[in-house]
Amino acid sequence: MKKIAGCVLMLLSIIPQISKAQSTRYIIQFKNKATNPFSLSNPTAFLSPQAIERRTRFNIAIDSTDLPVTPRYIDSIRSAGAVTILNTSKWLNSISIQTTDAAALTKINSFSFVKTSQAIAARTTAASDKFVDGQDHPSNTSHKETNLTADFFSYGSSFAQVHIHNGEFLHNIGLRGQGIIIGILDAGFQNYLTLRAFDSVRANGQILGVSDFVAHDGSVNEDNPHGMECFSTIAANIPGQFVGTAPKANFYLFRSEDASSEYPIEEHNWVCAAERVDSLGGDMISSSVGYNLFSNAAFNHTYAEMNGNTTMAAIGADLAAKKGILVVNSAGNEGDKPWGKIITPADGDSVMAVGAVNASGVAAGFTSRGPSSDGQVKPDVASVGISTVIQLPSNVIGTNNGTSFAAPNLAGVAACLWQGFREVNNMKIINALRQSGNRASNPNDTIGYGIPDVKKAMLFLLKDLASSSTSSSNCEATIKWTSKDKTGMKYQIERRVPGQTTFRKVGEINAIGTSFSSQTYEYTDDLTDVPSGILYYRIRQIIDTAKKSFAADYIDTTSTSFASSCLTGTNAISLSPNPSASIVSVTVNTSVSSQNIAIRVYNSLGQLVVEFKDSKAEGIAVYDIPVSHLPSGKYYVSAYDNKELIQTKELIKL
Fold first, then answer.
1. With contact defined as beta carbons under 8 Å apart, do 349 and 318 qualify?
2. What is the DSSP letter of 67?
3. What rounded mean pLDDT belongs to the chain?
4. C-alpha–C-alpha distance, residues 253 and 268, integer Å
5. Which of 78, 123, 464, 474 has the fewest CB within 10 Å, making it most exposed?
6. Please, are residues 156 and 168 in contact by the beta-carbon 8 Å criterion?
7. Inter-residue contact 416 to 176 (CB < 8 Å)
8. What phi, psi does 495 have (nearest 5°)?
9. Which has the closest alpha carbon to 89: 274, 252, 346?
10. What string of DSSP letters covers 399-436?
11. Pairing between β-strand 388-391 and β-strand 619-626 as defined by DSSP bridges
C-alpha cells in the first residue's frame, strides 16, 4: 500500500512552492479548453462506443470534462524548449511534463492560456520498494476447501476469501464477471505474461490492454509485482488451488505508480489512468494505491485534506464515479502507524474504500481507520486482507497481508454482482454492498458497514427492481410480478384478507430463468370463502434454498379490492393453513349478525385448550387463532353462535 498528495480542480493552489532546482517534473494547468477542435456534439472522436453507451444507459451528460485538452496548448508547451510531455488529464485540464530547461519554464509561464505551473516531483531515482503491506509467503499449508456443496469452481486454498462474501453463490448462478471491464491501477504487473494464475485470462483474451503512465514504455510485465498480486485475487483460475473472485471479467492493466519514490505526480498519473479506463469503456477501477506522505515532506497531505474534495486522487476518483465507473480503493495500512487514518483516494465520497479483516472477519490491526475528515463512514466495507491468497512472481501461490489485497478481492465480488444488475448504476451497487454488510445498522471506523454478503445485496437489488400487480374477478385473484431469477430459485405467494393480522402462504412457483435474468410470472388464487374488502398479496423470493444458507426476502407487495364474497354456503367454517405451526385462520360464514361468536379448540381428549370470543356482521369474518403453544397433534376447531354449534373442523398442529 502506498500514499500520495493532492489538489482541487484549481489543483496547484495547494501544492507548496518547491525549489525548481529540486524538481524536474511539473504540472501545467490550463485556464480553459478554448479553440478545441473536439466538440461535445461528436463524442465518438474522443470516447469509445462503450464509454458513450455507459453514459446513455445511466443518463450521464457528456460535458466539458470529457473534452480532450486543447491540442495546440500541448503543442505550445512541447515546443517551448527541452520539454517532454508525460501525461495529459482532460478532467483536470492539465499536463505533466519533465524538463530541466529554465528558459522553457519561463516561456511556458508566459503563455496566456496557462493558469499555473508547479514543481511536483524530483528526478526519478532508485529507492527501496515502498509497498510494505506485508511479506509474501509461499503457501505451504494444507488450507483446503471447507465448502460442502458442488460449487462451479474448485477454489482450493482461496475458498475462504471468496466465501466470506458468499461469492461462490454468484459464481454458481453464472455470474463470474463476464462482460465487466475492470481497470487495475497499480505499480506494475511483473511476470503476468507467464504466471500460472493468468493462464485462463491470457488464453481467452480477457486482458484488453496495458499502459505504463510512469515509464511510457508500453509494457508492465517487467515492473513491480504488487499490481500482479492484486490482479490475481480477481483473475486467478487454477482449479483446486486458487480461483479469484471474478475470473471471467475483462481487464486493463495500467501502471500509474512509481514504486521507487512517492511524489504528487503519481496522483496525476492515477487520474490520467482513470480517464483512460473511462474513455475505453471500462466499468470498474480496482486500485490498491493511496497517498498521504511523500518523499519530500513539503508535499505531505494533512488529515484535514482527507475530505474527498481536495486531493487530485480523490477528485479524479469521484469524477470517474460521476462518469458511471465503480471505483474500489484500498483504505490504507496506517491503522498501527502514527497517521492511523484512511489515505486518499479512499476518502472520495463516491469511492468504495475497503478495509482488511481475516478470514474469520476479525479486523486487521493495520487497516486504516475512519472517518474521513468531513465525517464520512470510512472505510466503507471490508474484505480479506490477512493471509490473502495471491500469485507470487516466482510462479508459486502464496499469501500476503494488506488492504491492497482486500480491495481487489471485493472488487471482483462487486463485478459479479453488477453483472447480474447491469441496469443499475455504480452507486446502487456500492449502496447494496454497504447495506449487506454485517455492520450495516451500526457502522464503525474500522470496517465501516462491515463485510458484505452478496446474497443480501442481491435481495436488496431485487426488491428495488421487482414489480407486481393484482386483479380479481369471478372468485379469483390474479397476481402478476416481474423479477430476476434463475432455475433453482423460487417464489412464495402470501395473502392477507380482511380480519387477518398476518399474511398466509397460498402458493409457490419455481423460477424458470435459464440464466440469471428478468422473468414475468402469474399466479391465480381461489377466493372461495374469502371475505370481501381489500386483499393484500406479497411475493417472497427465495434465491438460495439450501437449508444451511437459506436466503429469501419479500420483493414486493400488492393489493386488490374484492367486491363480493364467493360463498360455498352459510353457517360454515374453514381453516387455513391446515396443517398449521403457529396461527390458524378460521373463516366463519353466517347468514345473520351475531354478538356472541365463539371459536373453541379442543384436543383429542375433548379438553378445551383455546377459546376466542367476538361479534360479527352477516357474512364472512376471519379470525386468527394462535396455536403455536400447543403440542403437535390432532385438534378440533368449533365455532358457535351463542350456544348453537355452527360447524367443527379437524386441525393438524405441526
1. yes
2. S
3. 91
4. 17
5. 474
6. no
7. yes
8. -130, 145
9. 274
10. EE-SHHHHHHHHHHHHHHHHHHTTTS-HHHHHHHHHHT
11. unpaired
Calpha distance 567→619 (Å, rounded): 9
Q: Is the confidence at residue 528, as pLDDT, over 90? A: no
Kindly report the CA angle at 316 between 310 and 320, in degrees rounded to 5?
135
Instruction: Quick: pLDDT tens for 563-616.
Output: 766 766 678 888 888 888 889 988 888 878 888 899 999 999 999 999 999 888
Q: What is the DSSP string of 427-473?
A: HHHHHHHHHTSTTTTS-BTTTBT-S--HHHHHHHHHHHH-EEEEEEE
> What is the per-residue pLDDT for 131?
52
Asked if residue 419 lies in contact with residue 402, where contact means CB atoms within 8 angstroms, the answer is no
What would the grid cell of residue 493 be? 405467494
| Contact indicator for 239, 157 with CB cutoff of 8 Å | no
Distances (CA, A) of 218 to 239, 271, 343, 431, 620: 31, 18, 29, 36, 79
Evaluate whether 533 touches 498 at the Cβ level (below 8 Å). yes
Which distant-in-sequence residues (6+ apart) come within 8 Å of 524 by Cβ? Answer: 476, 477, 478, 479
Instruction: Give residue for cell 481467452.
Output: 204
280: which residues sit within 8 A by CB, 6+ positions away? 48, 50, 51, 181, 183, 208, 209, 252
Give the integer Cα–Cα distance in Å for 54 and 61: 10
Confirm or reject CATH 3.10.20.90 for domain 572-653, answering yes or no.
Answer: no
Which residues are CB-contacts of 157 (< 8 A; sequence separation ≥ 6)?
A: 139, 141, 143, 144, 241, 242, 389, 397
**pTM for the full predicted model:** 0.87
What are 623's three cell numbers? Answer: 379470525
3-state secondary structure of 47: coil
Q: Is 585 helix (H, G, I), strand (E, B) or coil?
A: strand
Cβ proximity of 170 and 191 under 8 Å: no
Which residue ranges make up each domain of the chain?
A: 1-292+385-438+445-461, 466-562, 572-653
- The class (CATH top level) of 1-292+385-438+445-461 is alpha beta
Grid coordinates given for 39: 466538440
- How far is 237 from 244, CA to CA, in rounded Å? 6
Residue 5's pLDDT band, with cuts at 50, 70 and 90, is very low
The string of pLDDT tens digits covering residues 77-134 is: 999 999 999 999 999 999 999 999 999 999 999 999 999 999 887 655 444 445 545 6
CA distance 312 to 94: 11
Q: What angle do CA 239, 241, 246 make, to 5 degrees?
A: 65
Q: Are 359 and 388 in contact (CB under 8 A)?
A: no
Could you tell me which of 503, 478, 481 has the C-alpha nearest to residue 491?
481
User: What is the grid cell recorded at 10?
Assistant: 484549481
CA 607 to chain centre: 57
List, as one string, the DSSP characters of 121-165.
E-----------S---EE--S-------S--SS--BTTHHHHHTT
Residues 6+ apart with CB under 8 A from 57: 324, 422, 423
CA-based R_g, the chain, Å: 31
Q: Which residue has the cell 482486500?
A: 406
CATH number of the structural domain 466-562: 2.70.50.50
pLDDT-derived band at 500 (thresholds 50, 70, 90) equals: confident
What is the average pLDDT across 541-547?
Answer: 86
Bridge partners (DSSP) of residue 182 are: 251, 284
